[in-house]
Amino acid sequence: MNRNKAPCLRCIFFFREPPSTLWYGTLVLVMSVVGHEQEDMGPAHSTWMIPFPERPWVAFCLVLPIIVIWCWALLDDSHPTLLGLLFVLDASSRRPTDAQFITQAAAVEFPSPIDYAPIQQACARNGGFRDGLLFTCEGQHGGVGMVRNQILKCVRYAMHAGAAIVVPSMSKRNPKDISDIETIYEAPLEYLFDRHAFVNHLTAACPGMRVYDSEDQFPHYSDRVPENLTIVGDQFDPEHPPEGIRQPREWRHSFEGWLDGQGVQVSPQKPVHVKIDQAFLEYPVRDDGREFANEYGKILSFRHETRDLAARVLLEMRNKFNLPIDPSRPINPDTYYGAHLRLEKDAVEAWAPEDGWRFSNMEDQFQEQFKNLARFPGLDVVYVASGNLTVVDLFRQELARRVEVDSSSTDKPGPYRGRNITVVTKHDLLPDKTVIDSLPFDQQGLVDFLVMFRASAFMGVGHSSFPWNVALRRHELSRYESIANEGTDLLRDELSVIMGKRSDYHHIDPFATGLWP
User: Fold this and answer.
1) Is 177 helix (H, G, I), strand (E, B) or coil?
2) Using CA atoms, how far apart are residues 490 and 471, in angstroms rounded to an integer?
3) Domain spans, the chain
């Protein structure tokens, strides 16, 4: 027996692991030490027993780490996850292969899988679905966040009315002028979203609603009321406050009164076709309850190709910078910082600095990002999302200058002293740049959205729906219920910041109350 031979253990640090992992790791620790000792004792001692009396060093090796692990765990109040120190026998065996990583990462688009129950409950209280009523929502326009929200609103109104629906469509942005979003070029839902998932989710979440690929599939459509009708969501409450229409649950009653006023009666043999036109953030998304608000947006998944590309971006960051990214988790701590720079042509024209939009000024937007990044000394990989690569280069140069100044200063050290910060984009990370470069502007934005969603820390501006969508989706994982808890910014929780106060903006659109995350 070799008394000098000690168990070989690998020590790894992990953060915010679930309790089950801690139990498992402790068991592995015990079994590995005991098993190693049994090997030393030979075949005569092949039964499993803990040799505390004869081997005091074994007792020490077992007891001390367990005490440390569980004391640390018990002191951590971040339920349901724990901050701990874990010894495992072979951590590398749990690291997914590149192919596994991409598959797992592409499957994580939301904080949690969809729960149909809150949607089913809301759908069931609408008074019932009726044959002969068809809603369409074609030509939705705007950026990714607004198009997504317009589609969700249209479907919500169809639920209220008890109508069937045609799979929505959208207007394509002008590729030669990205500020031109109201074009005549119509694109199907799958231009940005997963059509198959949408139909499946909506059918499961609202079983009474019928979903059609086109109007012509609707029963007796050729015999419909001759004139197609058009309404907007806030038509029955045009003077509503910024927070949205005041009685969304009375929408059906108002709608039926409006149909009567048009001299129209719904019947299966003579259907009625109603087009929902585009209004702006008029539906109070929390009216159906927090659970519904968190789950409803999950009926719209981004298209598969963009989810795979986002997964590849995460993989490249993991491999290139040795980041501890678990592809199965929505957000990993201590990995990378996400900065959304809204300084593209369409943004600067729509929200001009001279009109009071402070953060359309590049220097002001950069400064807020730099101040926020300084709060996270462990995040030295900065992923930037912007449709303007010239802006990204300027951001990179200015950040490098600040690091150099802080590191060379002999006075009071600055926040970037000694840091080795790398600024990257999807274009820097994806091996085959021809794929991402071939995608239209808004499809490229989907990749950025998904990577931003999973950042350890995130910041964006308050006048764009894109960062609000990202931050509100991340907020589902926050310990806070309300959105402004850790400062004076428009949204500030432990995961995300929407920069600035209300006084920093010409006005604030009701994104916080009008967007489904």
Assistant:
1) coil
2) 11
3) 10-94, 117-299, 304-514
* CATH fold for the domain made of 304-514: Rossmann fold (3.40.50)
- List the chain pLDDT tens, one digit each, 517 residues: 444 444 443 433 343 444 444 444 554 444 454 444 444 444 444 444 444 445 665 555 555 666 655 555 545 444 444 444 443 344 445 789 999 999 999 999 999 999 999 999 999 998 899 999 999 999 888 889 999 999 999 999 999 999 999 999 999 998 888 888 888 889 999 999 999 999 999 999 999 999 999 999 999 999 999 888 999 999 999 999 999 999 999 999 999 999 999 999 999 999 999 999 999 999 999 999 999 999 999 999 999 999 999 999 999 999 999 999 999 999 999 999 999 999 988 888 889 988 889 999 999 999 999 999 999 999 999 999 999 999 999 999 999 999 999 999 888 778 999 999 999 999 999 999 899 999 999 999 999 999 999 999 999 999 999 999 999 999 999 999 888 777 789 999 999 999 999 989 989 999 999 999 9
Alpha helices, DSSP H only, in 130-274? 144-161, 195-205, 251-261
Q: Where would I find the beta strands (DSSP E) of 330-440? A: 337-340, 381-385, 422-424
Strand ranges in 281-394 using DSSP code E only, listed in sequence order: 337-340, 381-385
